[in-house]
Amino acid sequence: MPQVSIAELVAAARAGQLVGFPTDTVPALAAVPEAAASIYAAKQRAPEKPLILMAATAEDLWPFVRGDVMARARWKAIAAKYWPGALTLVLPKGDRVPNAVNPENPTSIGIRVPNWPLALAILQQTGPLATTSLNRSGQPPLENLIEIAEAFPSVVTPPMDLWELPLGQDRVPSTVAQWKVEGWTILRQGSVRLEP
Q1: How many CB atoms lie within 10 A of CB 158?
Q2: Residues ≥6 apart with Cβ < 8 Å to 107
Q3: What is the pLDDT along the chain (196 residues), one digit of tens a residue?
Q4: Would you list the domain boundaries of the chain?
Q5: Whose CB has fewer CB within 10 Å in the chain, the N or C terminal residue?
C-alpha cells in the first residue's frame, strides 16, 4: 500500500484511485463518487449495500439530496446539532449522485461529515468522496495500518506518522438514521444517540 503525503493522496483520489484514511469512527475506504465501483470490487461488497458520501462540510453535501424546504430545514437542524460527528443521515437521493455510489437503491443516499482533522483536511481538498469502512465485506473494520496494507496493497494512505486513530473513541461505525415522512428511523445504532 503506497504511503504518501496528503497532497499526493488528494491527487490520487482526484485521479480516481482508492484511498484510505482515519476518521472519528473507523478508517474509511474512499473514492471519488464516479469511481465508487472500485470500492465494491476491492471490498468484494454486494451492490445492494450502499456507500455513503462523506464531505468536509454539510454545504458540500446538500446538493446531492432532494427535498422540499421544510424537509431540508429539519435535516439541516439535525446536521447542525451532530456534525461534524458520527451520524450518517440517509436522505432522498438527488440527481448529482452517480449510480455507482448506490447501484441497488435509486431513491436514497447516506451523507456524513466526520469529526477528525486529517479526514476533514483531505475532504476539503477532494470534495465529497464515496466511502465505507476499510475492510473486506463482512469482516471487522481494520484499524492497524500494517493489516490494512496487507489486505489492500493498492490503496493509497497517509504515512504512518499521520495515521493516528481517534483516542478515547468507541471506534464503532456511525449511527445511521433514515428520514421518513414521519421522522427519523435508526438503521444502525452507533455512538450517537439521535434526539430529534
Answers
A1: 22
A2: 92, 93
A3: 578 899 999 999 999 999 999 998 889 999 999 999 999 999 999 999 999 999 999 999 999 999 999 999 999 999 999 999 999 999 999 999 999 999 888 899 999 999 999 999 999 999 999 999 999 998 988 877 888 889 999 999 998 877 766 555 557 789 999 999 888 999 999 889 987 5
A4: 6-188
A5: C
- The one-letter code for the residue type at 86 is A
Q: Which of 121, 108, 98 lies closest to 16 in space, CA to CA?
A: 98
Q: Which runs of consecutive H residues, i.e. helices, occur in the chain?
A: 6-14, 37-43, 58-61, 69-82, 117-126, 145-151
Closest among 23, 14, 18 to 155, alpha carbons compared: 18
In this structure, whether the domain defined by 6-188 belongs to CATH 3.90.870.10 is answered with yes
